[in-house]
Design a protein that fits this description.
The chain is mainly α and 181 residues long. It is 79% helix and 4% strand. It has a two-stranded antiparallel ribbon with strand order 1-2. A hairpin with a 2-residue loop joins strand 1 and strand 2. Helix 2 runs antiparallel to helix 3 and helix 4 runs antiparallel to helix 5. The protein is elongated. The mean pLDDT is 89.
Length: 181
Amino acid sequence: MLASGLWMAPGGIMMMIVSPLGGKLTNVRGPKFTLISGVLVITAGYALSMGLMSSAWGLMVVCIVINSGVGLAYGAMPALIMSSVPLSETAAANGFNTLMRSLGTSIGAAVIGVVLAQMSTTAGGYTFTSEGGFRTGLIIGGSVALLAALVAAAIPAVRAAAPTEEKAEEVGALEEAGVES
């Protein structure tokens, strides 16, 4: 367990490095662009896994690429949500985002668990997940990531609304409370 965690550590470090770059990309091109870019990087990581899964260093490279995409995408989602809902609804919208991410993680783990359990082989009296099972799981992950890119591309562009009197009052109240808008 310790060894596998250490092999995965560079992926986590890369996520920390890429996250601020995702913020800068969001400032320049917008959260929708950053989300699509992140999900396409994740898709590329899953595609790479088909050729690199035969060695520990190859899986480390795959983990680095996928986590780089996660670093881009996860920072973009809240920004995209907050730009799409009224200021008074941002907490509820971000809470819903967190709930949906948790549901997606749980459902994804269950689906991949079933695939791995069903695609097994027996050797020496022990049952192991087959290479085909792992490949199928990785193909599912890459397909879901590609689908996410298509869904993100279909998100309507958000136009900056003209300042209204109500919005100006909300911003003024936040500034008085010491919160930046």
